[in-house]
Amino acid sequence: MRRPFIAGNWKMHKTVPQALELVEELRGLLEGEEGVEIVVAPPFTALYPVAQVLKGSVIKLAAQDCFWEEEGAFTGEISPVMLADVGCAYCIVGHSERRHIFGEGSREVARKARALLTHGISPIVCVGETLEERERGEALKVVGEQMEGSLAGLSGEDMARVIIAYEPVWAIGTGKTATPQQAQEMHAFLRQWAWEKFGGDVASTLTILYGGSVKPGNIQGLMAMEDIDGALVGGASLRASSFAQIVKGGKG
Ligand code: 13P
After folding, report:
1. CA 100 to CA 126: how far, in whole Å?
2. 119 in active site
3. Which residues line ligand 1 at a C-beta cut-off of 6 Å?
4. For the chain, how many structural domains are there in total?
């Protein structure tokens, strides 16, 4: 009932020529794939040129962040209106790198998510605990609080268009993946959380991605878990062959 969903977060990688090369290769490898939502999130500078290559493609476009205002004196920021204009269907918000390197909090994440929904863009809302938090036995508490704050003000109807990504900070870019069981435990908690807050219809259709060192070799084990619906892939999305293998592995 939930469609597999595989997204590549390119982070601060790829010039325009490099981005075009990657996305053209991806079209060649993935065009015609059905039964899976495929998404790429290039840096802002490559969104427009990549969108031109993706016209008529099954691969959808995402941004990696946004600001919540529509326009104005906000030097350096990009609005949801601008992202919709270049053809973004999705936008990542609250990635742990934004939370930890740039000091973003869940209040800001919620404002961004609400602004994106207003402009027809689905937010991919990221949550995840640090290693210290996990070792203190606080992983569920921390992630529950991030959900509460980052989804503040959203209705059940809004939630039908929201994607959640669980990315344990200790698994990002470290080569250390959460085991399928560790990820499943958190995903089941997240679905239960959504059940209590928004009801069974929202919870049972909510797409919950896992992120953190997802590779062609571990995608199938993760996707075999009941509550893991897809992946948010960092490093392994930077090469067409490995991202395409993850998409195909994720489809099952
Ligand atoms: P890695 O796949 O490089 O660990 O990154 C995960 C991530 O942060 C995706 O958003």
Report:
1. 12
2. no
3. 9, 95, 167, 172-173, 211-214, 232-236
4. 1
